[in-house]
Each structure stands twice: as structure tokens, then as C-alpha cells.
Amino acid sequence: MRAEVELEFEDEREAEAVARAVSPDNLEAPEGLRVETWWEGRTVYTVVECERGVESLLATLDDLLACVHSAERALKALRGL
Fold first, then answer.
1. Phi-psi region of 67 (alpha: psi -120 to 50; beta: other; left: phi over 0)
2. pLDDT tens-digit profile of 9-45?
3. Tell me, what CATH number does 51's domain have?
4. How far apart are CA 23 and CA 72, in angstroms?
5. Number of domains in the chain
């Protein structure tokens, strides 16, 4: 199975920060799961390839989006300083 996620941000700097925040997951995926994240302009792209079943794919996507949300909240908090 394969899922592709595209998320647009206000600017390239924000997209880069979010992509870098979730990119360590690219290196720590268990066997049968591949996650790759990058940014182009103000868009963050993530591709998830999963051989571990639909439940694992959905859990991975849920984790990814939770991490993106946390990164967005951190960026907003930093802007408020």
C-alpha cells in the first residue's frame, strides 16, 4: 500500500521547518514500512509505503499528522515570543 500526503504552508520557511521536524521518522521506520518527507516551495510532501497491513498504514499516517500538528503549534508559539 502507498499513501501520498501534500500539505501547504504559509511560506517556504514554515514548510521547511515542518518537513525537518518530521523527517527523523524517515530513518526510524520498522521493516516493511518506508516514510519519506521533503518540501518544495511551501508544500511538504510525504510518501508512506507499507507492507504491514492497512492498520499499520493508518497508524503511520495518524502519527505523521500528529507530528505535523505539534510542529505547527511550536512554530506558532515561537512567533508569539
1. alpha
2. 999 999 999 999 998 655 667 899 999 999 999 999 9
3. 3.30.310.50
4. 14
5. 1
